[in-house]
């Protein structure tokens, strides 16, 4: 029997950690994770694959909507599940790089919700100055919790599919960040262009909010802020400000996201959203990197 010499023994974990090259290797591994999705083909191939995933997922969402057409909540939840699975297969991750702790993720959701609330508030303030807003007492009910759940599910669905997939495809193709945001904004706009009732105002609002949500996605290098902003917008304009807390509405037009947006509120909100999307990256607190992420969350 041949006796293994001491030099042949594998190094222990402690010895490996204390090796002079270990810190450099750890930093290198983190840098590789933080670089984002790796390209698997030429830029045209990457964009083409992104479009294929986008169209395929949109078709699956349409099928689910037809299947559960009688159940509004089922449509929203099934859409969120389909979007999460499909976008994961397409290479989209809720966090690019090291996964955030739940507390940090919740904080990013709050930041996104705050941005959306500020844009909606600015829209109503502009409308009030022009004498276009009416305010009445609301009638809160316990059903608001179902509206919160539905708004969150729709936000997850739309942000993973219409922001996440285009942004990841653009990153893999080496497309500059502004062009990637434009790609994501156009993807969301195209998704409602053929729907009944879509108007120029609704398409412009979809493009403007898509640009804003894509800006949040790129800054956070993940979905949390964009989902928070989308959910807050849907909740504020669809329930909280339409009787859930207070009944505040424009005399003409509609501020909701989607093909039903119309008139002055949609045009004003689009303008405020574009201003926010352009201004936010120039603010010092927004340009700073997100907080440290904690590993271990799936």
Describe this structure in words.
The protein is mostly helical. It has one domain (39-287). Helix content is 65%, strand content 3%. A two-stranded antiparallel ribbon has the order 1-2. Helix 5 packs across helix 9 (224-240) and helix 7 runs antiparallel to helix 8 (200-220). It is globular, with a radius of gyration of 22 Å. The model is unreliable at 1-7, 28-34 and 291-298 (pLDDT under 50).
SSE layout and pairing:
Layout lengths: L12 H5 L4 H13 L8 H25 L4 H18 L12 H28 L3 E5 L6 H29 L4 H17 L6 H21 L3 H17 L5 E5 L12 H17 L4 H4 L11
Antiparallel strand pairs: 1-2
Helix pairs in contact: 3-4, 3-6, 4-6, 5-9, 5-10, 6-7, 6-8, 6-9, 7-8, 8-9, 8-10
Structure, briefly:
This protein has 298 residues and is mostly helical.
Q: What keyword list fits this structure?
A:
globular; disordered N terminus; 11 helices; mainly alpha; disordered C terminus; two-stranded antiparallel ribbon; 2 strands; 298 residues
The counted number of beta strands is 2
- Largest sheet at a glance? 2 strands, antiparallel
**Which oligomerization state do the chains in this entry correspond to?**
single chain
Summarize the amount of helix as a percent range. Answer: 55-70%
Mean pLDDT over the full residue set: 82
Our count of domains comes out at: 1
- Outline: globular
- Which strand order does the major sheet show? 1-2
The SSE order reads: HHHHHEHHHHEHH
Instruction: Give the N-to-C terminal Cα separation.
Output: 47 Å
Q: Percent of residues in beta strands? A: under 5%
Structural class: mainly alpha
Radius of gyration: 22 Å
Individual helix count: 11
| Poorly predicted segments | 1-7, 28-34, 291-298
């Amino acid at each position: 029997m041949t006796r293994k010499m001491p030099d042949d023994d594998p190094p222990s974990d402690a010895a490996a950690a204390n090796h002079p090259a270990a810190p450099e290797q750890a930093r290198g591994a983190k840098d590789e994770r933080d670089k984002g999705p790796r390209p698997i083909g030429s830029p045209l191939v990457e964009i083409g694959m992104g479009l294929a995933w986008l169209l395929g997922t949109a078709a699956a969402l349409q099928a689910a909507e037809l299947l559960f057409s009688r159940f509004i909540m089922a449509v929203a939840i099934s859409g969120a599940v389909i979007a999460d699975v499909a976008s994961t297969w397409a290479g989209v991750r809720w966090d690019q790089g090291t996964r955030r702790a739940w507390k940090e993720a919740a904080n990013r959701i709050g930041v996104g919700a705050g941005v959306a609330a500020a844009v909606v508030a600015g829209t109503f303030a502009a409308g009030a100055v022009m004498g276009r807003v009416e305010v009445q007492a609301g009638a809160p009910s316990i059903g608001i919790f179902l509206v919160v759940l539905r708004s969150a599910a729709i936000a997850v669905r739309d942000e993973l599919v219409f922001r996440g997939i285009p942004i990841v495809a653009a990153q893999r193709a080496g497309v500059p960040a502004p062009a990637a945001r434009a790609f994501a904004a156009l993807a969301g706009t195209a998704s409602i262009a053929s729907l009944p009732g879509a108007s120029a105002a609704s398409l412009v609002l979809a493009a403007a909010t898509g640009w804003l949500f894509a800006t949040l996605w790129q800054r956070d290098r993940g979905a949390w802020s964009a989902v928070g902003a989308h959910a807050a917008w849907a909740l504020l304009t669809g329930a909280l400000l339409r009787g859930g807390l207070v009944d505040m509405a424009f005399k003409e037009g509609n501020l909701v996201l989607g093909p039903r947006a119309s008139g002055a509120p949609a045009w004003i909100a689009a303008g405020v959203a574009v201003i926010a999307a352009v201004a936010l990256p120039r603010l010092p607190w927004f340009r700073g990197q997100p907080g440290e992420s904690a590993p271990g969350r799936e």
